[in-house]
Amino acid sequence: MKPLYSVAQIRAVEQLVAATLEPGALMQRAGQAAANGVLALLAGQANRSVLLLAGPGNNGGDALEAAANLAGAGAGIDVAVIYLAGSALASAETAQALGRAHDAQVRFLDALPDSAPALVVDGLFGIGLARALDGAARVMVEALNALGWPVLALDVPSGLDADTGAIVGPDGVALRAGRTLAFIGNKIGLHTFEGRDVAGEVEVASLAIDAHYFPPASAELNQAALFANQLKPRANNSHKGSFGDVAIVGGARGMAGAAMLTARAALYSGAGRVLVAALDPGPAFDSVQPEIMFRDGATYPLGVGTLVMGPGMGGSALAMDMLARALPGAAALVLDADALNLIGASVDLQKRLGARTAPTILTPHPLEAARLLGISSLEVQRDRLAAARAIANRFNAIVVLKGSGSVIAAPGGAAVINTSGNPGLASAGTGDVLAGICGSLLAQGWPAREAALGAVWIHGTAADRLVSQGIGPIGLCASELPQAVRAVLNELVYGTAKNG
């Protein structure tokens, strides 16, 4: 498990442990961990200068401890500190760290230096910030973002909400770090929404705190281990019926491509048989993937196989009627795109969805999630974890709230944040591909939660594989994903990218 904790949970752990230690011991551990991280990053570099930013709270104390350790390390590090003391008295621990930095003959500056240091260490505010950066801190952060100097953030980049991944304040700003060293435990906000861009690569320093001090995690990071029990080699004595049927209900006039992308993704991720139940007359076959079958959506029996409803479905009376008929049924169901919009606009469809007992996965983007909850997309993005949990509980379904750091939530509150994927997925049709993978894994017998976890991780990893091959992220197309999905899935099952 790769646990994620809320700020409240981290503070509770900190208080429990601090009561068992000498005053300032945890700050000293954090300062040493930060110094060790800096030394590792500077290894082999000719430029050995470090600028540490220390704010008025304990995060600033961590930075001051790190400065004292670096100055006394005998490693030839040129250590400078900008200390923004603020108007309130520093804690006893931070005052002690300040004294140690002075005793170590650290240079204290009043402004950013003219020449770029090898590394800037951000110890301005950490998890303690409750309002948008302002004053001298904001000016400094904006200047550093413009300069683009390398930044290591201590615990949380200053200006970022550690619980939600949102930059604090409606007009807020956060210091963009290439790396973040999270203390005690990993934070939710480092891995979703704006947090992924602001925090960079995240490493955790537990500060030698024993596991028994930690509560159950608020969430966790997605990884293949969470769905590994479903990754089984196929028996030689198999046939196409062994791996399920997937029907994509969509493809209204002018939107057949969405249903095609979903169908191809289902096919390439292993479904035995795939068909498109088109709402409007369209192509009788897919010239790229002739294995895909086509049926008249108006007469298709919606109780057969696994249904993926929504890609290119439109908002017609027929689409509404098909949803109304499918929701009470026993077929496993993936709802995406237009199906979610229709449900968001209909109290009757919402009741039918909430009453389902068959496996159900919803894959909304933030605007679709907002319609399901009756709020704005801005409110969804301000707390993605809470929004995904609210939808899962309201509709008794597994929810994939798409976006940077997609959130997979189950009824009851269990939540996972995905970190695979890249900006290449911010293009038309990639959500249709994800829906197809979800449907395919459901059809192959995966439980709904594992199907969602696996689909999201594989989808993102496929995009990462394409980028590593020079395909994207700019210009990466949804139609390029299915073959990469196939390669990733086979690699997971067989240990090698077969049939890629």
From TrEMBL:
<feature type="binding site">
    <location>
        <position position="122"/>
    </location>
    <ligand>
        <name>K(+)</name>
    </ligand>
</feature>
<dbReference type="InterPro" id="IPR036652">
    <property type="entry name" value="YjeF_N_dom_sf"/>
</dbReference>
<dbReference type="GO" id="GO:0052855">
    <property type="term" value="F:ADP-dependent NAD(P)H-hydrate dehydratase activity"/>
</dbReference>
<dbReference type="InterPro" id="IPR030677">
    <property type="entry name" value="Nnr"/>
</dbReference>
<dbReference type="InterPro" id="IPR029056">
    <property type="entry name" value="Ribokinase-like"/>
</dbReference>
<dbReference type="GO" id="GO:0005524">
    <property type="term" value="F:ATP binding"/>
</dbReference>
<feature type="binding site">
    <location>
        <position position="155"/>
    </location>
    <ligand>
        <name>(6S)-NADPHX</name>
    </ligand>
</feature>
<dbReference type="GO" id="GO:0052856">
    <property type="term" value="F:NAD(P)HX epimerase activity"/>
</dbReference>
<dbReference type="GO" id="GO:0046496">
    <property type="term" value="P:nicotinamide nucleotide metabolic process"/>
</dbReference>
<keyword id="KW-0521">NADP</keyword>
<feature type="binding site">
    <location>
        <begin position="402"/>
        <end position="406"/>
    </location>
    <ligand>
        <name>AMP</name>
    </ligand>
</feature>
<feature type="binding site">
    <location>
        <position position="432"/>
    </location>
    <ligand>
        <name>(6S)-NADPHX</name>
    </ligand>
</feature>
<dbReference type="Pfam" id="PF01256">
    <property type="entry name" value="Carb_kinase"/>
</dbReference>
<feature type="binding site">
    <location>
        <position position="312"/>
    </location>
    <ligand>
        <name>(6S)-NADPHX</name>
    </ligand>
</feature>
<dbReference type="InterPro" id="IPR004443">
    <property type="entry name" value="YjeF_N_dom"/>
</dbReference>
<keyword id="KW-0479">Metal-binding</keyword>
<keyword id="KW-0413">Isomerase</keyword>
<dbReference type="GO" id="GO:0046872">
    <property type="term" value="F:metal ion binding"/>
</dbReference>
<feature type="binding site">
    <location>
        <begin position="126"/>
        <end position="132"/>
    </location>
    <ligand>
        <name>(6S)-NADPHX</name>
    </ligand>
</feature>
<comment type="similarity">
    <text>In the C-terminal section; belongs to the NnrD/CARKD family.</text>
</comment>
<feature type="binding site">
    <location>
        <position position="158"/>
    </location>
    <ligand>
        <name>K(+)</name>
    </ligand>
</feature>
<protein>
    <recommendedName>
        <fullName>Bifunctional NAD(P)H-hydrate repair enzyme</fullName>
        <ecNumber>4.2.1.136</ecNumber>
        <ecNumber>5.1.99.6</ecNumber>
    </recommendedName>
</protein>
<feature type="binding site">
    <location>
        <position position="59"/>
    </location>
    <ligand>
        <name>K(+)</name>
    </ligand>
</feature>
<feature type="binding site">
    <location>
        <position position="365"/>
    </location>
    <ligand>
        <name>(6S)-NADPHX</name>
    </ligand>
</feature>
<comment type="subunit">
    <text>Homotetramer.</text>
</comment>
<comment type="similarity">
    <text>Belongs to the NnrD/CARKD family.</text>
</comment>
<dbReference type="InterPro" id="IPR000631">
    <property type="entry name" value="CARKD"/>
</dbReference>
<dbReference type="Pfam" id="PF03853">
    <property type="entry name" value="YjeF_N"/>
</dbReference>
<feature type="domain" description="YjeF C-terminal">
    <location>
        <begin position="223"/>
        <end position="492"/>
    </location>
</feature>
<dbReference type="GO" id="GO:0110051">
    <property type="term" value="P:metabolite repair"/>
</dbReference>
<keyword id="KW-0630">Potassium</keyword>
<feature type="domain" description="YjeF N-terminal">
    <location>
        <begin position="10"/>
        <end position="215"/>
    </location>
</feature>
<feature type="binding site">
    <location>
        <position position="258"/>
    </location>
    <ligand>
        <name>(6S)-NADPHX</name>
    </ligand>
</feature>
<comment type="function">
    <text>Bifunctional enzyme that catalyzes the epimerization of the S- and R-forms of NAD(P)HX and the dehydration of the S-form of NAD(P)HX at the expense of ADP, which is converted to AMP. This allows the repair of both epimers of NAD(P)HX, a damaged form of NAD(P)H that is a result of enzymatic or heat-dependent hydration.</text>
</comment>
<keyword id="KW-0067">ATP-binding</keyword>
<comment type="function">
    <text>Catalyzes the epimerization of the S- and R-forms of NAD(P)HX, a damaged form of NAD(P)H that is a result of enzymatic or heat-dependent hydration. This is a prerequisite for the S-specific NAD(P)H-hydrate dehydratase to allow the repair of both epimers of NAD(P)HX.</text>
</comment>
<keyword id="KW-0520">NAD</keyword>
<feature type="binding site">
    <location>
        <position position="431"/>
    </location>
    <ligand>
        <name>AMP</name>
    </ligand>
</feature>
<keyword id="KW-0511">Multifunctional enzyme</keyword>
<keyword id="KW-0547">Nucleotide-binding</keyword>
<feature type="binding site">
    <location>
        <begin position="58"/>
        <end position="62"/>
    </location>
    <ligand>
        <name>(6S)-NADPHX</name>
    </ligand>
</feature>
<keyword id="KW-0456">Lyase</keyword>
